[in-house]
Structures are given as structure tokens and as C-alpha cells.
Amino acid sequence: MKKWMLGTFLLIILAFSAASVAVAQDATAEMTPEPGTVTQIQFQPVDNSGVTGFVLLQPQTEGTFINVIVFGLQRDGQYLSLYYDNHTCELQADSVEKDKVGNVYVGNRVGVGVTEGMVDDSLDEINSVSVRVGSDLTLLACADIHPGATDNATQQAGS
For residue 141, which of 107, 94, 97 has the smallest C-alpha distance? Predict the structure, then answer.
């Protein structure tokens, strides 16, 4: 009786093992694409604002996932981050409507704020990301995503 139970138990384990291998083989690279490498750039304070932090950008199949981590904010102040096709965080007429990263965020009690969001543009089209005061869009910090590249060179590469 014990041999029969042991044999049945081993048969069940063997069946589950074979099924696990079959399922793992079905998880091919086409079915489970790995996201692109994360690019991390440090924010540079503008006009001695004292605001620093990092922006992390990860290419996706369509668009880019952007994560913003900011230090040196005012407690309970409202901020927003935008992305640009220029290298200097120069505000464009439609930036606030079209190029916002995530939602408006608030500085916590120690001056840290975070936001994240998926954007439609690919990483090679994003040249800078900003931290701005939510109420008047004052530029506090800027991260040049492709340092050393010029706007002309970037536009020619995209053509």
C-alpha cells in the first residue's frame, strides 16, 4: 500500500514538473518583452532654487515611462514636471497641456515630491525634463536628458 501511494505521489510530482517546463517554454521573448534600459539623469537647480533630484526614463514598446524624484521643495507646495524637445526646459505654448509628466505633486514635510507617468514620445524625442512651481510655472530645476547633443543634431537624427 505504501509503495502504491509513494508511486502515485512521484507520478503527480513528475506530471506537475513537466507541465511547469512546458509553460515556461511558452513564455518566449515575443510574449514577454523586457522594457528598455532605465536612463537616470540628475536635475540641476535653476537660479539657486536649491531643488535637485533625479528623473528616470524607461523606453516602452510605445512611448516612455518617466519617474521624477525631487528634493528641496517647499512643504505643501504644488509642483509639476514637463518634458521638452529642447535641452533647456524652455516652455512651449502647449507644454502644460501636452507634455506633463504624471499629475501635479506636493512637497511633503521634508521637501520631497514624486510623480510618474507614461508619455507618448520615445526617449530619443525627449531632450529635457523640468520641475516647475504649479501656480506660475517658475522653473526650479532642469535635467538635460541627452547632454552634449544640440537641438539641430537631434532634429537631424530624427529625420
Answer: 107
Which of 31, 36, 32, 40 lies closest to 122, judged by CA?
A: 36
Total domains in the chain come to 1
Q: Would residue 58 count as lying in a domain?
A: yes
pLDDT digits over 101-129, tens only?
A: 999 999 999 999 999 999 999 999 999 99
Here the CATH number for the domain that contains residue 103 is 2.60.40.200
In this predicted structure, what is the pLDDT of residue 147?
A: 84
Of 85, 72, 143, give the one whose Cα is nearest residue 111. Answer: 72
Give domain status of residue 121, yes or no: yes
Which whole-number Å values give the CA distances from 49 to 15, 74, 103, 119, in the listed order? 64, 11, 22, 27
Domain that holds residue 142: 39-148
Q: What is the pLDDT of residues 52-95, one digit of tens each?
A: 999 999 999 999 999 999 999 999 999 999 999 999 999 988 88
User: What b/e sequence results for 147-159 when a residue is b if at least 16 CB atoms lie within 10 Å of its CB, and e otherwise?
Assistant: eeeeeeebeeeee
For residues 148 and 84, the answer to whether their CB atoms sit within 8 Å is no
Q: What is the pLDDT of residue 17?
A: 46
